[in-house]
């Protein structure tokens, strides 16, 4: 059991931030720490956090060569697709915030529904929604992958190293092999559907059907060949030609649950550069990803509703902190499920949802002593509730996150995903395809009203990914954070921000906090983390409490006078590395 970290005084925090930054080059993939053993990493020049030690090493190598934060993220992503295939890869999508020292922007690499998709994609013949895994496994759930196109756009913006060089660590590792981690082995052991795909079965499992043991050397020559082609010929090698044809054939050729993807869908994919969504929290400026992600808006809503409360005076594991946090969480989710969707198809009232006056009204619904029950969506400026149906699209927690600060002080926060673990369970040319279309609402209408996040042709499904950057009043970078975790990402990130900004925890202590939250249902407490006494206290305030697994994959980087401090979630195998 990990004890709840205690907050430190402002004087102690100042001493921490002013401390000389030690070298962090001694952290190696073989030394990935366990649940309680991780320590904050200090670096003077540059730093990277990822969810896998091999990926952190690949990104660090680019930074040592003078590469940009974008270069490091590309190298890390290519390795993640190899060593953490259950969570992200070139068959999926991503969202990225990027600060070049002067301006902040965001890149949308979210998957897109094929041109053949319609609002009834996930309805059965009897007009009822499909069961979740009935929809997930196979080609029906696969959206047009976006991460490669997004990374190419970002590289054109501020890449410093050649595009082809960024693929070499992953190519080398795919050819020479990497060691199967305990996490990958555990997920393969419990996986029910991956063996149905012949290519995936041959790659991940032994002849008797058992998963590859921990420590096995796993090589992926097919992935190496795919990356060589993309490295040499750019993203057109993925979105056109043999790779694209293989994707379309795999999606449309599934025996039980085929999709209807076209070569033209891949060729037409375009990433989008969008303004970041920013708002105040006390003396800071917090920035996140706008729609089609709901993460940036929901995190800002939570912080805005909590600002009137003295969060710094509550202990992180206190009933007051957990109660207020859960109430803000459920109010944000009520709005999220009503209003957030692809802004190319739906008028998303972003400004109204994060307006200070609106959030003050929403905050007044929070009773410090009593649970408010089921939260109803509000009415931000210019929107009527009756215009939108309620959406309860499931989002499951297999995703990954990367933070980077490069030698020039440029900063990146990127969350990347194939959605469910191992995505659609379809493997092609050494990588897995996403199931992101199941992030759409399965039901296109609710009580006669259209759901904003319903399936439509060439639409991007709503997400909860919440890459986040924080700045001080002078516009200077303060911290970067983000997490995997499906729709729980929003709560994980908001809690980590409060941990660092209000409770003055260092990044490692903040990402290690035991979790609590509420997605407008039961108040969830992370089990086996010492929160059992909190359950009774919250129940006394009217909460329906559920003890559950809350396997985040948080990481965070904080700027200090002497450089940077990074931390990686002890629940997963990620590490922070720097110099």
Short recap of the structure:
This protein has 579 residues and is of the alpha+beta class.
Report on the structure:
- With 579 residues, the protein is of the alpha+beta class.
- The chain has one domain (10-177, 219-273, 395-578): Gamma-glutamyltranspeptidase, small (S) subunit (Glutamine Phosphoribosylpyrophosphate, subunit 1, domain 1).
- It has 19 helices and 23 strands.
- The strands form six sheets. A seven-stranded antiparallel beta sheet has the order 1-22-21-17-16-9-8.
- Strand 8 (277-281) and strand 9 form a beta hairpin.
- Helix 13 packs across helix 14 (319-339).
- It is globular and about 60 Å long.
- Residues 1-35 have low confidence and may be disordered.
Share of residues in helices: 25-40%
The biggest sheet amounts to: 7 strands, antiparallel
- Reported CATH architecture: 4-Layer Sandwich
Residue runs with pLDDT of under 50 for 5 or more positions: 1-35
What CATH calls the topology is Glutamine Phosphoribosylpyrophosphate, subunit 1, domain 1
- Strand content is 15-25%
Given the structure, what is the number of helices?
Answer: 19
By CATH reckoning, the class would read Alpha Beta
Ends apart, CA distance between termini: 32 Å
User: Per the principal axes of the C-alpha atoms, what is the gross shape?
Assistant: globular
What radius of gyration results from the CA coordinates? Answer: 22 Å
Mean pLDDT: 92
CATH superfamily: Gamma-glutamyltranspeptidase, small (S) subunit
Number of strands: 23
How many domains make up the coordinates?
1
State the secondary-structure class: alpha+beta
Q: Order of strands across the widest beta sheet?
A: 1-22-21-17-16-9-8
């Amino acid at each position: 059991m990990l004890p709840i970290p205690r907050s430190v005084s402002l004087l102690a925090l100042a001493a921490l931030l002013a401390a000389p930054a030690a070298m962090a080059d001694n952290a190696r993939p073989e030394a990935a720490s366990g649940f309680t053993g991780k320590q904050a990493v200090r670096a003077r020049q540059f730093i990277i956090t990822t969810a896998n030690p091999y990926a952190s090493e690949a990104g660090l190598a680019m930074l040592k060569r003078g590469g940009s934060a974008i270069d490091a993220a590309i190298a890390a992503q290519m390795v993640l697709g190899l060593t953490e295939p259950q969570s992200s890869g070139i068959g999926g999508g991503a969202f990225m915030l990027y600060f070049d020292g002067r301006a902040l922007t965001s890149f949308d690499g979210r998957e897109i529904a094929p041109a053949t998709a319609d609002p009834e994609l996930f309805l059965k013949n009897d007009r009822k929604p499909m069961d979740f895994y009935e929809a997930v496994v196979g080609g029906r759930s696969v959206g047009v992958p976006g991460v490669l196109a997004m990374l190419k756009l970002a590289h054109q913006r501020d890449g410093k190293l050649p595009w082809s060089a960024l693929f070499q660590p992953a190519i080398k590792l795919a050819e020479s092999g990497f060691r199967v981690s305990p996490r990958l082995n555990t997920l393969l052991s419990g996986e029910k559907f991956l063996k149905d795909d012949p290519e995936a079965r041959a790659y991940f499992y032994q002849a008797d059907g058992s998963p590859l043991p921990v420590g096995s050397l796993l090589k992926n020559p097919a992935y190496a060949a795919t990356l060589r082609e993309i490295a040499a010929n750019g993203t057109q090698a993925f979105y056109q030609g043999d790779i694209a044809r293989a994707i379309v054939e795999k999606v449309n050729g599934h025996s039980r649950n085929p999709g209807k993807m076209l070569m033209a869908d891949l060729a037409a994919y375009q990433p989008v550069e969008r303004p970041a969504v920013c708002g105040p929290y006390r003396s800071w400026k917090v920035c996140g990803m706008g729609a089609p992600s709901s993460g940036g808006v929901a995190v800002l809503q939570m912080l805005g509703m909590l600002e009137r409360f003295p969060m710094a005076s509550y202990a992180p594991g206190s009933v007051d902190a957990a109660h207020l946090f859960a109430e803000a969480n459920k109010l944000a989710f009520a709005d999220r499920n009503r209003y957030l969707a692809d802004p190319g198809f739906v008028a998303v009232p972003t400004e109204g949802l994060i307006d200070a006056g609106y959030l003050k009204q929403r905050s007044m619904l929070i009773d410090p002593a009593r649970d408010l029950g089921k939260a109803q969506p509000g009415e931000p400026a210019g929107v009527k509730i009756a215009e939108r149906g309620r959406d309860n699209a499931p989002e499951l927690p297999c995703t990954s996150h990367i933070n980077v600060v490069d030698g020039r002080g440029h900063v990146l926060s990127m969350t990347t995903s194939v959605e469910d673990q191992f995505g659609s369970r379809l493997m092609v040319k050494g990588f897995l395809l996403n199931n992101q279309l199941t992030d759409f609402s399965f039901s296109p209408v609710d009580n006669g009203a259209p759901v904003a996040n319903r399936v439509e042709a060439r639409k991007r499904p709503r997400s909860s990914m919440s890459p986040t950057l924080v700045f001080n009043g002078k516009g200077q970078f303060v911290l970067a954070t983000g997490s995997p975790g499906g729709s729980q990402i929003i709560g994980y990130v908001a809690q980590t921000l409060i941990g660092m900004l209000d409770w003055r925890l260092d990044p490692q202590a903040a990402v290690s906090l035991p979790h609590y939250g509420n997605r407008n249902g039961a108040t969830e407490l992370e089990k086996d983390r010492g929160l059992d006494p909190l359950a009774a206290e919250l129940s006394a305030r009217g909460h329906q409490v559920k003890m559950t697994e809350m396997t985040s994959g948080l990481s965070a980087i904080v700027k200090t006078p002497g450089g940077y401090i990074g931390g990686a979630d002890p629940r997963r195998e990620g590490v922070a590395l720097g110099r």
